[in-house]
Specification:
alpha/beta; Rossmann fold; globular; two-stranded antiparallel sheet
C-alpha cells in the first residue's frame, strides 16, 4: 500500500547558506553603491568636511591646474579639461581671469560657484620663464615686514606680486557676486587654492581677504614655498588652520617646498599633507615635520634630480598639474 519513497538529494548549498550568501552580496552591492554616491557627491562646499579629504583635494588640484590653461575662453565658459575634472560648476558670465604683472606673470581665476554659496579663487604657479625668474629670487631675498600681521615678515618677492594684483582680485570677487560688505551674506565665502608661487600667494591673500571682510571657508594649496617667518606661520595657524580646513599639500622630493631656506628665517605654515612617489599620504600637523617633506634636506640634489616632482601629482587625472589637457 505504501511504496518506498525515494530520498531526495540534498541541495549542494543548504538553504540557510544560500540566503546568507545572497544577503552578503546584497550588502556588498549596497556598500559599493553608497561609496559611488559619496564619491560623486563630494563637494568642496561640504560644511561637514573638516579633515583632509583626498577627493576634495583632487577637486582643488584640478582648479589649480585649470589656471595653467592657455585658452582662457574655455575657462570663461568653464569647458576646459580640468574644469570637468574639478567636478564643481562655476556660473558662466561670473568668471574672471586676471592676467597681470610683467609679461602677465601672475594669473588668478575667480568664479561664482553654481548651485552652492560662495566663490572660487585659484592662483597660478610658475608657468613661464618670467615666473621662474621671480621664484629664483628666493635665494637672495630676506623677509620684510608684513602689514597684515604684527611681528610677521614675509618674502618680499611674493609680497610684491600680491600687492600688485590685490585690488584687481578684490574687484573681481565683488563683480562675480561674492561681495564682502554684508557679514550675513550667504555668498560671503571663499574657497582658495593655488600651486607653486600661486600657493604662496594663496597664503598671503588669506590675510588680506579676511581683513577686508570675507569669510574663508576652505583652502588647499599645492607645492608651496615658504612664505614668511615663524611669527607669520604662528599667526596663520591661529587665524586660519585652527578654524577651518587648511592643507598645504606636498609631493615626494619637490625642491620648491624647501625654498626659501630655513637658514634665511623662513618657516612653513601648517598643516602639511605629504604624498610620496608611491603609497599613501601622511598628514603632519606641524609646519616643519620630519615625517613629511622636511625629511629631505639635499636641496641641490632635489633640484638636480627631482624637479619633476613640482608639477607631477597623483591628484590630477593626467598626473601633471602644470600641463592640463583639453585647454
Amino acid at each position: 500500500m505504501y511504496g518506498h519513497r525515494p530520498e531526495l538529494p540534498l541541495p549542494a548549498h543548504p538553504p540557510f547558506l544560500m540566503v546568507g550568501s545572497i544577503l552578503r552580496n546584497m550588502l556588498r552591492c549596497l556598500m559599493l553603491a553608497t561609496l559611488a554616491v559619496s564619491v560623486r557627491s563630494a563637494s568642496i562646499a561640504d560644511a561637514n568636511d573638516t579633515g583632509y579629504n583626498p577627493l576634495i583635494s583632487q577637486h582643488f588640484a584640478s582648479f589649480s591646474s585649470a589656471t595653467y590653461c592657455e585658452d582662457t575662453s574655455k575657462l570663461l565658459d568653464w569647458t576646459c579639461g580640468p574644469c570637468a575634472d574639478a567636478q564643481t560648476n562655476l556660473v558662466p558670465g561670473k568668471i574672471r581671469v586676471i592676467d597681470a604683472g610683467v609679461s602677465n606673470a601672475s594669473r588668478v581665476l575667480v568664479g561664482k560657484l553654481a548651485g552652492q554659496h560662495g566663490c572660487l579663487m585659484a592662483f597660478r604657479g610658475s608657468d613661464n620663464a618670467q615666473n621662474w625668474m621671480r621664484d629664483m629670487e628666493v635665494w637672495k631675498l630676506h623677509p620684510e615686514p608684513y602689514a597684515n600681521c604684527q611681528g610677521c615678515e614675509v618674502h618680499s618677492g611674493f609680497y610684491t606680486v600680491w600687492k600688485n594684483i590685490q585690488d584687481l582680485v578684490l574687484k573681481a570677487v565683488n563683480e562675480v557676486g561674492c561681495g564682502q560688505y554684508s557679514t550675513g551674506a550667504v555668498d560671503n565665502l571663499l574657497y582658495i587654492t593655488g600651486h607653486s608661487m600661486g600657493a604662496a600667494l594663496t597664503h598671503l591673500a588669506m590675510f588680506s581677504l579676511s581683513d577686508a571682510g570675507w569669510n574663508i571657508a576652505k583652502t588647499y594649496s599645492y607645492e608651496a614655498p615658504r612664505v614668511g617667518n615663524k611669527a607669520f606661520s604662528d599667526k596663520f595657524n591661529e587665524r586660519f588652520t585652527r578654524k577651518f580646513p587648511v592643507f598645504r599639500v606636498t609631493h615626494n622630493q619637490d625642491p620648491i617646498v624647501h625654498l626659501p631656506p630655513e637658514a634665511l628665517g623662513f618657516y612653513h605654515v601648517p598643516s602639511e599633507v605629504w604624498y610620496p612617489k608611491h603609497g599613501n599620504y601622511t598628514i603632519c600637523q606641524g609646519p616643519e615635520d620630519a615625517k613629511c617633506a622636511n625629511q629631505f634636506s639635499d636641496i641641490p640634489g632635489m633640484i638636480a634630480f627631482h624637479r619633476s616632482d613640482h608639477c607631477s601629482s597623483p591628484l590630477v587625472p593626467n598626473g601633471d598639474i602644470c600641463n592640463p589637457k583639453n585647454c
